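Sample entry was shown:

___
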Amino acid sequence: MMATRRELLLKLAAKVSNNQRATAAIATGLAARNGLIQRSSRSFSTAAQVDPPTATIVNKAAPADLASSLDQAKLEGETPKRSRVSDVTIQEVLKAKHTARWVEPVIPHNATVRDAIVTCISQNISGMMVVDRTDTMKRQQKCVGLITSRDLLRIMAASIKDGKSAEEILNQSVIQQMTPINQVIYGRPDETIGMCRAIMAKLGIKCLPILVDGRVEGIITARDMSEFYYDPKDLGGKKNYLTDVSERVGLSENTSMAEPPIFVRQHLASKHDPLFINVGTAEYPHPFKSHDGVGANRRDFGPDDLATDPSLSEDAHFVSTVEMLDESGTNMQKLLYMGVADGVGSWREYGVDPRDFSRMLMGECQNILRDASSECSATGGTACTMISPAELLARSYKRTKEANVIGSSTACVGVFDSVHHQLHFSNIGDSGIIVLRHIDSDVASALQRNRTTPRTERKSDLRIAFVSQQQLKSFNHPYQMGWTGEEVVDKNSSFKQASDSCTSSVHILRGDIIIMATDGLFDNVDIDDIASIALKWELDNEFIDNGGIDTRRRRWESGSSLTDISAQCIPTLAEMLCQKARENSLDNTVDSPFALLAKENDIMWSGGMPDDCTVVAMHVVGKPANLNDV
């Protein structure tokens, strides 16, 4: 039987209140959180007071403004028009929630995981603001972070994996496990239910603090928005039980899980077969760059040919294949690591070469992996395990600081686990990863289908399966890793640690195309155009036939993977993308993605955005290269 998150916490809270060991309850059905997308759009003020609602009664089924319009319609003899739920403002939802039941969703910063679990269950809440009451009055509580029931499950799952006892888990401090205040995603009272639902779905969050004049007025959840417009009479009573519950409560003893769909079974049948990646890289410098500096435009650059020397680029990258222990700690496996970094050019104004930091950061990533692989070989695989991308970035950053290399850069580092078909990555700034995949419309869900182009007019079923989240302080101001010669203590600084990175994992399928690149690509080439270029590359090299995947599937079934052709041609795809980025960056007649976003942020910009561009293109295949196809 599958337990809900609330049931798990209820069981654990009961054991905590009786001072019993909670190991069994903690271990049941726990899963690590996928990772909160991190962004710092605006700092919360020190005042985080949540005031109870006034005595004004708000009808939950019809907010004040809606109720008045309904009454007016009745007086005029018209049929009242109900407002769409998605158009109702969050302010009305918050009023209705507080009127029905007032709970202050806070927990002290010195509280433990044990306290947080009990608070969640006793107050029936999914999230709490962590507040510091040290130097403030009780009603003026300074918010320092946010912790949710999902965080608590993630904490317990990670701690169990680390072998901690129940007491050690429950006695951990929430301030060490919370989402820091400068990474909390928040909403505004004038935003609608539809808008907030979209934000929560896109970013994978369940709790949304509502900020008003620097104060958190409450926390909205998906359940709050779903329950809005329901009267108590709609939720209880005999009639509602007979209508909504009686015919669907209780499963028979013979209930079992259904078999996966055919296309899923086909994938599961091969899930134990390792996958391999062929990699190609390309790096173009800023078109107006020379050894003397960077021209603002073509006239400023002069009549010389556009720059092509990769050594002029402030980008850096690495690709390394190493052998380390798998997560079981018993078997050696090959791991493919890759990374890109974009040096911040404004350091040039201070006499610092922007290339130094990015190259050192990526170079040390490669050195760390080489050292770890050598250690594995020397010890017979007894003292090394897979290094996570975030840990790799942290170690490289430490070495870069110790070498006193001044500068800063964005960074994106990933590792491909060929056995589990997982791509793990950590990203800081506006570099990133996209995954392109052929998704058969006959079996795809409604949301994955191409609903804009009629099927008869489509050239292929190549879709954008994943786009990594970027981290920006503001427009054209990405967060970055950096070193000035001393530690920066300003909390509003653009500098971030590896622990602040957006860290996630993507399940990879055979035939996928993975693109890791700096912003020189994404600022100049629309993602749909990237997919079109990748499709042309597939067609040119006959990986697919006329945009379809039936021929490819039959070829795979016969044992032919075209691995060698893929390994030879994948650098061409990286080159094609870099070349397209350069062409678009020099085109002043068509607005690039950068220009479109600039105008949305009230910045006048037309055409492309000349910049360094680095692309790491990857093609997922079923055999390692250098094998003869059957």
